[in-house]
Protein 1
Amino acid sequence: MISNNVYLRFDTFDDEKSVLNFINEEKNFKANSKTWKKDIYKLLRYKKRHLRNFEKDNQYRNIFGYYLKIMIPDTFDKRVDEFVKETMLEIDKRFLKDLYVYKIITEGKGRYAEIICFTRYVYKKANRCLKKYQRDYYYNQKTKKLCKKDHPDAVLKAKKGDLILDSSGHKIYEVVEVKAVEDRIFVYKTIQELTRRLKNAVATVIKDNQYHELIVNIVSRITIDKDDSSAVKKYKQQRNIVIRKINEIIRSFIEHMKLGNLLTISEIEEVNEEWCKKVDEMAHEKSSSFDDMKDYLYKWWQQNIIEVMF
């Protein structure tokens, strides 16, 4: 069986400065949005307007973005952009729209994709909406300052979703550039659990693409010449039907080896060549029957795959 070794590092950007430092390096960034830099500034503006006040001993904090560093496997050496795209979509399909920006770096003998991603969708066109309270607001009836719900002097000022009014009682409009509700993509009970889930996503992409360059060989058909008699043409057509069915079995076995991750690409190519050489001889030189050729392939599969690996 084949195993995939995956290097992945996960972290968060906990302030605006760290995000700007990352994107201002100008190292040939690529993204799933042509306006990625403007989109990031929109996300930062929104986040700064909606910061939450966490106490020092609270494990939660304001997160401005997420960081991923992933080693690029050799199989994707010439398909780096494809690797990043497939990995992000394997992590979560919502990254089809949610923004991610990446650059490729080299460290030692390895190449890595450094990615900053966001879990709040950026609208293509800003919307003008009524401003609403994003959470329940309580104030201290004695001090008239905001306070917690459980404070003895707390009074509910507004419920989440209530319209915000100005001092004259008029509705307030705001320009909305990003989705208010954040997609819950990087949620976890433990960081180990999240890291394992992210690594599994990368491993899945690697596994699904490890046979990308595999070319399946099949048994060649018999050429039908225009000068052949009707009887000869009919015979060759019947033999070609047999060869087509045999080729379907060969393709099916190879697909099973790929999906089951049973052999490496070089091992599959070696087996494929062995099958074709033997069956080609049976089909073209010995005129073996379909059952004889099928029996050879199924016997090989039974002895070398079923009995050995299962």
Protein 2
Amino acid sequence: MSENYSLMKNEEETKHFIERVLHPLKDDEVYIVVLTARKKYCPTISSSMEVVTRDIIRSNDTNKILRKLRKMSIVENLYTDKNGDIIPIEAFSLYLLPEPRSMLKAYNEFIKNINEWSYNNLVGDNKDLELYRKLDVKLFSAIHKSKSKSNYFILDVDRKNEELLNNILNQIKTKDLSEDIGSSLQWQHPLSSSISWISETHGGYHIILDRNEITGKFIHEFMNKHVPDVEFRKETMTPIVGCLQGGFVVKEYKL
């Protein structure tokens, strides 16, 4: 199928992003990929943000991951909004949650939720058996909530302004110089080397930082400055590099 029908526009960039950002999965771990459509990018669709579909990555094989992303990237004339209108390609974004989820935790959460849901449905006055059609939604919700480990912090710069970005990066470098470099922790985790990746997104930049004590302290102090157009993302969801986000091809921002 022509790449005109796909969100994936630069597979080599996508491959490079995957290999740099995704840590190898262990045991019961998986990653989540989410395809969304946003009114922000296409005012004609009916809702502000709609999760169109989602899937899990259960392999460490880059080629298998790329095949899954290629499949999810095919969107032209396939999805409709709540009004039944076809969602145009410029509305879509493909996101990755780069922190693994535990399927064992998710299974435990799912079983508890379903047992409670089933009991309430059985003893209630109104029997709504159609709820059971949504078991897949309940399962995916449980997977989403069941984080296995926390690898990253993400700073979302919500303005396409290199001066603002460089100001943040300079604060990171300055922080390294001003800290007590004699501490063993500072030697192990200098802040500037904790920048794992920077993406240029549709509306700005995502700075992906390795999560450790030093970066945690920096995030806390930096966010207390209330810098305009900069947000700390509690949900570490980031657009996939090499793919369209609202018509813009997300790319690596190289220092």
